[in-house]
Amino acid sequence: MRKAIAKTVFTCMCLFSIPSHAWTYEDITSTVETLQVYPDYSSGTVLFTLKDKGQVCKGYWFEQETLADQTTFNFLLDAFKTNTPVNISAVSDQQRKWSDSEAHFCALSFVQYQK
Questions:
Q1: In angstroms, rounded to a whole number, what is the distance separating the alpha carbons of residues 26 and 54?
Q2: Degrees (nearest 5) of the Cα angle 31, 53, 94?
Q3: pLDDT tens profile 17-44
């Protein structure tokens, strides 16, 4: 009887556990070197590169789907125009690489002005 209950509890735990993925992030501080928009991709895919390259990330991307995404674009545009260094954090995992590039463009997670 105890084995049957333990087996049932174990089975329920396996069935109701939520799979998760721990992303790998790469952080870098540099100035924005290029900034481009592809309006034909979804709501507008934004790609940008930094003067200094990361170990994995050679560029960064995000979609302009929300007001926050538009704010992020404006933030990067301002940094580009003023040559202000930014601190970038991006998901460097292969699953989040921008698929339309040979180079590894990482999915943007965070951007911050840096003095």
A1: 7
A2: 125
A3: 444 457 788 899 999 999 999 887 667 8
Counting every residue written for the chain, the total comes to 115
Give the whole-angstrom CA distance, residue 83 versus residue 31.
6
Using DSSP's 3-state secondary structure scheme, residue 32 falls into: strand
- Give pTM, 2 decimals: 0.74
> Which of 46, 53, 11 shows the shortest CA–CA distance to 31?
53
The tokens describing 23, both together, are 């992303």
The structure tokens listed for 2 are: 């105890």
User: Which ranges of 1-106 does DSSP label H, i.e. alpha helix?
Assistant: 2-16, 67-82
Whether the CB-CB separation of 64 and 110 falls below 8 Å is answered with no
Q: What share of the chain is helix, strand, coil (3-state, %, to 5)?
A: 30, 35, 35
On whether the CB atoms of residues 105 and 61 are closer than 8 A, the answer is: yes
